[in-house]
Amino acid sequence: MVPALVALLLGGLAHPESLSTTHIRVEGTRATAELSFQALSLIEVLPDLDTKPDGMLDAEECSAGRRRIDGYLLERLRVLRVDGEREQALTGRVEELVPDDPAKVGAMDLQRVVARFAFESEVPLEVLVVESRLFHEVNPWHRDIATLEWNGDGPVVHTFEGGDTRWRFEPAHVRRPGVFTGFLRLGVEHILRGYDHLAFLLALIVASRGLKALAGMVTGFTLAHSITLAASAMKLVNVDPRFVDLAIALSIAYVACENLMRRDARDPWIEACAFGLLHGLGFASFLAKPLAGETLVPTALVAFHLGVEVGQLAVVLVATGVIALLFHGWQRRVAGTPEAGLVPRRVRIAVSVPVVLVGFYWFAQRAGWL
């Protein structure tokens, strides 16, 4: 048989495609697990089990070696309850051990064995640590793909491989405050360090005719980028990030150029809304890596968006506060005239010229021309 030939050719060496899967379900004080592994993996660590020997384990061999098998599996697959800084291993037992019928194993397949475990806790489980060191003593490259379902929540997947033998699992209700705080801070930092976004806001501010109009534009900009941020992060829209970065640079230069070409202040509603959609795609591109593997995507999105708005609001308030201090008298003198605006034309030009230059510089840089 091919499995026996494989075992013979390996000559006692570990086979390179050693793979198992573990499915863990947590309900209250009880955790159950179903482990599916290759019989050959177990034979490599406990060779005396294969009494035939044929590179497989039948029901009789499993029954004869059941005590040793249970001891090995319970030592190498552990579930621990976490209480603050304290960890306590749960009492476990192997409830069932079922090998595939050797006669039904395909010619090119390796036989699999399914083991079902039960782990008991004295109190309801809140946070878990799963330890998996299955078959590592002879198979350091062994991989175990673990799936955990927590009290009816959606499944979460983790792969144990190499030196990664511990998985600390916190359910959604435990993780949510930390995820919210972390992504809120990430949103604020992204605005304060996002010089392209700050340049765009600055161009909008100096173009505005008044605080009321500015508030409306910023609101439109916010609504627009929240739409594309959510749509892109939820995989409803997919745009090449390189195109988005180039278009954002051009949007900055465009708004600043408009400031230079128009003599009087204006309310660039259309630009704010249209380019807001574009900047939302930029936010989503930035979020792609932090969101990778994150199960609480709605919480993360809401928190990041709030962080962006907090940072954006802080920038607008500081900028308009400075403008009010420096140009309040001028604003009173020109109120109701065509020249009316948040800042004099000379200031609008002085701000817009460097914004135009830096917008085109970013475009050339992102296009690979510099």
Rounded to the nearest angstrom, the radius of gyration is 31 Å
Structural class: alpha+beta
Which sequence of strands runs across the widest sheet? 5-6-2-1-8-9
**Helix-strand pattern:** HEEHHHEEEEEEEEHHHHHHH
Helical fraction: 40-55%
Overall mean pLDDT score?
Answer: 89
So how many helices? 11
Number of separate strands = 10
Poorly predicted runs of 5 or more residues: 1-12
What is the overall silhouette? Answer: elongated
**What is the number of independent domains?**
2
Taking the alpha carbons of the first and last residues, their distance comes to 63 Å
Main pleated-sheet profile = 6 strands, mixed
Explain the overall architecture:
This protein is of the alpha+beta class. It folds into two domains: 2-170, no CATH class; 175-366. 53% of the residues lie in helices and 19% in strands. The strands form two sheets. Strands 5-6-2-1-8-9 form a six-stranded mixed β-sheet. It has a four-stranded antiparallel β-sheet with strand order 4-3-7-10. Strand 3 (77-83) and strand 4 (86-89) form a beta hairpin. 32% of the residues are buried. Residues 1-12 have low confidence and may be disordered.
Characterize this entry briefly.
By secondary structure, this protein is an alpha+beta fold.
